[in-house]
Amino acid sequence: MNNQWNPEPAQLSNGSAVPGSDDRPRLGPRPSVHPPVDPGAAAAFGRPSGVDGAFSPRSPQQQPTFGELKTAPPAPEALASAFGRPEGNQELLQRPPSDEHGADGVDPWDADAAHDPWRDPSAGAVIGPPAVGPEKTDDDGESAPRPAAQLLSLPEVLFGRRVKVSALVLLAVLALVIGVGGGVAAYFIADRGDQLTSDATLAEVTAGKERPPGSVADIAQRVRPAVVTIEVRSEQGAGVGSGAVIDSGGYILTNEHVVTLGGAVTEGQQITVVFNDGQRAEAKLVGADPKMDLAVVKVDSDVSTVIQLGKSADLAVGDTVLAIGSPLGETDTVTLGIVSALNRPIVVGEEDGVPAVYDAIQTDAAINHGNSGGPLVDSTGALVGINTSIISTSEEGGSIGLGYAIPIDDARPVAESLIKTGKVNHADLGVNAASVSAETAEGARVQNVREGGAAAKAGIKQNDVIRKVGDRPIANAAELIVAVRHYKVGDTVPVVLARDGRELTVQVTLQSD
C-alpha cells in the first residue's frame, strides 16, 4: 500500500493526460486495523475449517484474478464490455471515458472516490460467493435436503472429550435431584390419593344403628312374624284382611267381616293365610261372632311365633301403640300412634242385619282397608286390640286418624269360646232400647221387654230409661249393650233407671243371648 504522492499524471485511455489531474494525490486503501478477536465470537462467527480467505475457496479450475486473492468468478461478457476497463488500461481507479467533467462542471470522481471500496477495484473487500458449498439439487431441480449433523454417541461423550467432565457431573446431579423430588412428590400424591381409590377391603358391620329394647323397631321386629295376611275368595268376590296368631296350634284371630267378606259369604269361601316370611297355607273357619265382629281361623301346620296377649284395661290415653297388618294389600306394614280414647262404643253393620257393637279403643295410628283383623300392640309388643273399623270422610275410606280396635279383654273370652265350642254366648239384659237425651233423663229408653228375659224378671218396664249398669253410666243404647257384655252370663248386676220422673235401682241376673 502506498500513501505517498505519485508525481505521474493520470492519463486517459487514449494516452492523454487528464486535465487538472496532475495536482491531485492518488491514495491507496486505508491501513487495516485488526482488534483482538474474542474466542467465543471466533467460535461462533469465524471462518469454517479449511477456509483462509473471506469467502469459500474456489474450485481448482478457477484461478484467482489477483494472485492468491480470492475473487469472484469472471463477470458476464455483456457486463464486462459495458462496465469493464478498456482493453490495455491498467489504472487502478476507473475514470469516466470522457475528458469533460459532469454537466454541472464538477468532477464526479473526487478524492472521496478513492475511499469508496465499491469504486476501487483494489479494495480489500471483494464481492464473492458465501462461505458455503454450492447448493445441491435433486433430479427434479429442487433443493435437496441437507444431511443432518452427526450425533455424538455415548462413548464419544464420556471418553471422547467432546463434553466437559464438570458438565456431565452437573447433569448427573441435576438428574438425581429431579428423580428424588419426583419420587417424594409421587409418594405424597399416592398417600393422599388412596382416600378416593385404593385396594382397601371394606369392613363388614352389623347393625346400622342402635335399636334398644322397647324401641319401635324392636317391637316391630318381634311382633311382625306373628301377623298374617288373610285372603278370602268365593264366587261372590274376594277380599284381603289381617290376623294375629294367638296359639301355636295354628289358631289365628281376626274380624268376622274379613272371613265372611262383610257378611256376603257365610260358607264355601276359600281362606288362604300368608305368613310374614311369604309362606302360604290354607285355613279353615273355626267360628265367628258377628255381634263382636270376631272370628277364628286355623291352619294345619304349627307356627313358630305367637303374639303375646296383653291387658287393654291397663291402657291409658296417650300410650304408644302400633298397628300392624296389610292395608290396601301392602303386606307387613307397621304404623305408629297413640291411644286417643278408651271405652268408645262403636256400632258397625246395622244395615247388614245384626249390628256389631263393641267398646272400642280409639287410636290415631294409620288404619286402612286391609288392616281389619290385624293386631294393635302396646309399647311392650303385647296384643291389646284387634283393628276393626275407621271413620273416614272419603268414599274410599282412607284413614283420617280415627281408627278403632276391639279391646283384647273383650276379644279374649270370645276367642277362647270359639276355639273350644265354635260358638260364643254373651250376657243379655233382654230388652230392646233406643238412645234418648232429655232434660229429665238421658240414657237408653226401653222400647220393649222380652218375655221371660232378665229384664222382665227384674221388673223393668217399657219406657223406662236405663241410666246406669253397675258402675258405668249409660248415655246411649250402644253403651248399654257393651256395658252388659262386660259381665258374664248369670251375673247379678244393679241397674239404675228412671221411671215417671223418679230414679229406681233394680237387681238383674243376666241371661244368655
What does this structure look like?
The protein is of the alpha+beta class and 513 residues long. It has three domains: 1-128, no CATH class; 217-421, Thrombin, subunit H (Beta Barrel); 427-512, PDZ domain (Pdz3 Domain), CATH 2.30.42. Helices cover 17% and strands 25% of the residues. It is built from nine helices and 20 strands. A hairpin with a 4-residue loop joins strand 1 (227-233) and strand 2 (238-247). The longest helix has 29 residues, at 165-193. The radius of gyration is 65 Å and the shape is rod-shaped. The relative contact order is 0.07. InterPro entries: Chloro_Bact_Ser_Proteases, PDZ, PDZ_sf, Peptidase_S1_PA, Peptidase_S1_PA_chymotrypsin, Peptidase_S1C.
Quantity of strands, as a count: 20
What is the level-2 CATH architecture name of the largest domain? Beta Barrel
What distance separates the N and C termini? 162 Å
Radius of gyration: 65 Å
Computed structural class: alpha+beta
Globular, elongated, flat, extended or rod-shaped: what is the shape? rod-shaped
Number of domains: 3
Provide the CATH topology of the largest domain: Thrombin, subunit H
Pfam families: PDZ_2, Trypsin_2
Family: Belongs to the peptidase S1C family.
GO molecular function: serine-type endopeptidase activity
GO biological process, one term: proteolysis
